[in-house]
From TrEMBL:
<protein>
    <recommendedName>
        <fullName>Adenine DNA glycosylase</fullName>
        <ecNumber>3.2.2.31</ecNumber>
    </recommendedName>
</protein>
<dbReference type="InterPro" id="IPR000445">
    <property type="entry name" value="HhH_motif"/>
</dbReference>
<dbReference type="InterPro" id="IPR003265">
    <property type="entry name" value="HhH-GPD_domain"/>
</dbReference>
<dbReference type="GO" id="GO:0000701">
    <property type="term" value="F:purine-specific mismatch base pair DNA N-glycosylase activity"/>
</dbReference>
<dbReference type="GO" id="GO:0035485">
    <property type="term" value="F:adenine/guanine mispair binding"/>
</dbReference>
<dbReference type="GO" id="GO:0032357">
    <property type="term" value="F:oxidized purine DNA binding"/>
</dbReference>
<keyword id="KW-0234">DNA repair</keyword>
<dbReference type="GO" id="GO:0006298">
    <property type="term" value="P:mismatch repair"/>
</dbReference>
<keyword id="KW-0378">Hydrolase</keyword>
<dbReference type="Pfam" id="PF00633">
    <property type="entry name" value="HHH"/>
</dbReference>
<dbReference type="GO" id="GO:0046872">
    <property type="term" value="F:metal ion binding"/>
</dbReference>
<dbReference type="InterPro" id="IPR023170">
    <property type="entry name" value="HhH_base_excis_C"/>
</dbReference>
<dbReference type="GO" id="GO:0034039">
    <property type="term" value="F:8-oxo-7,8-dihydroguanine DNA N-glycosylase activity"/>
</dbReference>
<keyword id="KW-0408">Iron</keyword>
<dbReference type="InterPro" id="IPR044298">
    <property type="entry name" value="MIG/MutY"/>
</dbReference>
<keyword id="KW-0227">DNA damage</keyword>
<dbReference type="GO" id="GO:0006284">
    <property type="term" value="P:base-excision repair"/>
</dbReference>
Length: 298
DNA sequence: AACGCGGGGTA
DNA sequence: TACCCAGCGTT
């Protein structure tokens, strides 16, 4: 293992000067605000989350506020962040916080992990960022920095390995305050400098320690297979949700023409089975509800 | 371990 | 066009 103390110093110092001033990082942001930001940031970039988070925290500043909100309004406020099941789970988490934690956010990662939509990453992130508990945080940015800096790989493997977890724990500073700064700093380094596509190695504070640089920046071991979009169920589900966010309801007989008229499907024309599969899937997920004649948000 | 799940910005 | 993004839950 390399000299980790030098890495800690260089990367946290870099963060002090170059870290972004994001609202959920400010000292006056509540743990609830941190939790909301982390859920919104699950697979959605910072720039798209910013305006939605700001409006969200204005409307529902505490878990109790969100728990009491109409779910249809919650889904509309979620807007086009994507993966709207996250919004349902966030409201369910708000209810659980009221019922099980007196309306507060627990600091214990195991208790956080028990909440709907809170996985290993989000539990560790909230525990560290909101409460200063030095949990080992591992997100896609941190994995990529570790893969390059320590292992000399172009990108980490698709799935998180036990070896990666051990490495992340070994790299954690012993000092609590430094450990929490390290979590934020490595994540930010991955987001701003050590990016997936075209990293800005000239701006990197640990360029001279980087195993990937030393190895001649080899290409990733594997070929990423991107998600399809055009014609998929996700596209159609998203188009149906987009229509219902803009309307009170839609007549079931007019669903196809109304969704098609939004233009969100491009040239794709779903067949009967795809329409049926997507509508029943949205019903099953609780993202829409059906009366005899209409579909609406919950 | 692999898959389904949104949507938009970027190279 | 393909890839990427502060992942999670299910199979």
């Amino acid at each position: 293992m390399m000299n980790t103390t030098a890495l800690h110093h260089k990367i946290t110092r870099w963060f002090d000067h170059h870290g972004r001033d994001l609202p959920w990082r400010r000292p006056d942001c509540s743990p609830w605000g941190v939790l909301v930001s982390e859920v919104m940031l699950q697979q959605t970039p910072v720039v798209r989350v910013l305006p939605v988070w700001t409006e969200w925290m204005h409307r529902w500043p505490t878990p109790a506020d969100l728990a009491q909100a109409p779910t249809a309004e919650v889904l509309r406020a979620w807007g086009n962040l994507g993966y709207p099941r996250r919004a349902l789970r966030l409201q369910s988490t708000a209810t659980a916080l009221v019922e099980r934690f007196h309306g507060t956010v627990p600091a214990d990662p195991a208790q956080l992990r028990s909440l709907p939509g809170i996985g290993d990453y989000t539990a560790a992130a909230v525990s560290s960022f909101a409460f200063g508990i030095p949990e080992t945080v591992i997100d896609t940015n941190i994995r990529r920095v570790h893969a390059r800096l320590v292992n000399g790989k172009g990108l980490p493997h698709t799935s998180l390995t036990a070896a990666e977890k051990r490495l992340a724990q070994q790299l954690m500073p012993d000092d609590t305050s430094t450990a929490n700064q390290w979590n934020k700093a490595v994540m930010e380094l991955g987001a701003l400098v050590c990016t997936a596509r075209s990293p800005s190695c000239a701006a990197c504070p640990v360029l001279s320690e980087c195993a990937w640089i030393a190895a001649g920046k080899p290409d990733p071991d594997y070929q990423p297979t991107g998600q399809a979009w055009h014609g998929t169920d996700r596209q159609l589900r998203g188009a149906i949700m987009g229509l219902l966010r803009a309307r009170d309801s839609v007549d079931r007989a007019e669903l196809r023409s109304a969704v098609t008229a939004t233009g969100k499907l491009g040239t794709h024309r779903p067949n009967d089975s795809q329409w049926e599969r997507c509508v029943s899937g949205l019903l099953h997920d609780g993202l829409i509800v059906a009366t005899k004649q209409h579909l609406t948000l919950p």
